[in-house]
TrEMBL record:
Keywords: ATP-binding, Kinase, Nucleotide-binding, Serine/threonine-protein kinase, Transferase
InterPro entries named in the record: Prot_kinase_dom, Protein_kinase_ATP_BS, Ser/Thr_kinase_AS
GO biological process, any: mitotic DNA damage checkpoint signaling
Protein name (database record): Protein kinase domain-containing protein
Domain of life: Eukaryota
Any single Gene Ontology cellular-component annotation: cytoplasm
């Protein structure tokens, strides 16, 4: 039986610059801390830095090369110089384990890509590698506004989840930084637009829709294996990695994601995409809530209408809660109807799982391009036989996108909760809003 090779902890030499004589130190990187000592015996290390989000590592560059790292010691910033290659290795090992400081030493901003009430997204480039990324910048005054640290805890949870995710269908987190006024999450830069924008400008074929849903189901299978629920799947959170290529779509924005084992069971998400079981107080919902949201996306891609509609975001939320579905599906083949019906089952115990959905014959059916619905708010309800179709007054396109961060209180008091909606990063963030729009938290 082949023995597993034990991975050795990373070690390197570094120097503290002094006016008279530089001093040599040895660094040992362990899973939970950095030890810096004058010898290779680290039991009595002079410097010890726990790897958590309360501590920070700073970087110094010259001529686009790493030349030193810094740590806070007795409220002073201590710099340790080393070779560029050793520092590159250290940087790589520390990514996602601790906040980095002084972001401008590593990244330079090129342009703004989007903006919301509490955040902005910039295109940035790494000064050392010259590779472009996206930087999600979250204002500290927003994060620390609540005394219970709920927003800060959500940010840390998002980071901890993202650092564990590595799949071709999900955007990759690269670095995390903390500045004086903002937190920065450096992400893989997706070159295309959101599926929300793309689908408004293009009529998608059934083959393209099949590619999108298949990619998203692969992502949900991966998240399910890792015990993660996204909780905010919608067209705005599906982005093309390459312009115009729907088979490169990736899931973004894990700001509301939780572990399936978490006791945190608040209602959250975006009205029109929320699974029915999430409206039941303290219901132990599962990863199948994401399957329902993807079903709502599937529906909208097929007929360019929303599953739940209304004049205001409050009406959409209420219709979503009452499960008053629309039906515009027309000329869809039986395989398409069957899959979407199974994904949108009201009872999560009867709803298909992501893995089961991927095995559905719909993904092997290449015989027909039928499936793109014609507009008809009064079409006979084939998909939802026990639900009356609603009269369509608008298609939600003029209602500002919102997301519910969390709802406290019982279901009976749901209608009376309120304050502050959070606009999406998508292109419509400056659109005039209809009705009340605020984050419920």
């Amino acid at each position: 039986m082949q023995q597993l090779i034990e991975k050795k902890p990373f070690q390197m030499e570094c120097q503290r610059k002094h006016f008279i004589k530089d001093k040599l130190y040895h660094l040992l990187l362990e899973d939970s801390c950095i030890k810096i000592a004058e010898t290779v015996i680290f039991q009595n290390s002079k410097y010890l830095l726990e790897l958590n989000f309360e501590n920070m590592i700073y970087w110094k560059t010259e001529h686009n090369q790493l030349v030193a790292f810094g740590i806070k010691y007795n409220k002073n910033l201590k710099w340790f110089h080393a070779s560029n290659s050793d520092l590159q290795h250290l940087y790589k090992h520390l990514c996602g384990k601790v906040f980095f400081g002084n972001i401008s030493s590593i990244y330079e901003s090129n342009e703004i890509l989007g903006s919301g009430a509490s955040s902005k997204v910039y295109r940035v480039s790494n000064k050392i590698t010259h590779v472009e990324f996206a930087s999600k910048c979250i204002r500290k005054d927003y994060i620390y506004k609540r005394e219970d640290k709920e927003r800060y805890n959500r940010l840390i949870q998002e980071i901890e989840l993202m650092r564990k995710i590595d799949h071709e269908t999900i955007v990759k987190m690269i670095d995390i930084f903390e500045g004086e006024k903002s937190f920065y999450i450096i992400l893989e830069l997706l070159k295309g637009e959101s599926l929300h924008s793309f689908s408004k400008k293009h009529t998608l074929s059934l083959t393209q829709i099949r590619q999108i849903i298949s990619r998203c189901l692969q992502a949900l299978c991966y998240l399910d294996l890792n015990n993660i629920i996204h909780r905010d799947l919608k067209l705005e959170n599906l982005v093309l990695n390459e312009q115009g290529k729907v088979d490169t779509v990736k899931i973004i924005d894990f700001g509301l994601a939780i572990y399936a084992s978490s006791s945190n069971r608040q209602l959250c998400g975006t009205p029109g995409y929320i699974a029915p079981e999430m409206f039941i107080e303290k219901y132990p919902y599962t990863t199948k809530v994401d399957v329902f949201s993807l079903g709502a996306i599937f529906y909208k891609l097929l007929c360019k209408k929303s599953l739940f509609t209304g004049n205001t975001s409050d009406e959409i939320l209420e219709n979503n809660k009452k499960f008053l579905c629309n039906n515009h599906l027309r000329n869809c083949n039986d395989l398409t109807i069957d899959l979407i019906k199974q994904m949108l089952q009201k009872d999560p115990n009867k709803r298909i799982s992501a893995y089961q959905a991927l095995q559905h014959p719909f993904f092997g059916d290449k015989s027909s391009e039928l499936g793109i619905a014609e507009e008809s708010p009064h079409e006979i309800v084939r998909t939802f036989p026990h639900t009356k179709p609603m009269q369509i007054i608008n298609s939600n396109d003029n209602i500002a996108d919102i997301k519910i961060q969390a709802i406290r209180g019982s279901q009976q008091s749901f209608e009376h909760l309120g304050s502050n909606y959070f606009p999406s990063f998508d292109e419509g963030f400056n659109k005039p809003r209809c009705g009340s729009d605020h984050i419920i938290e």
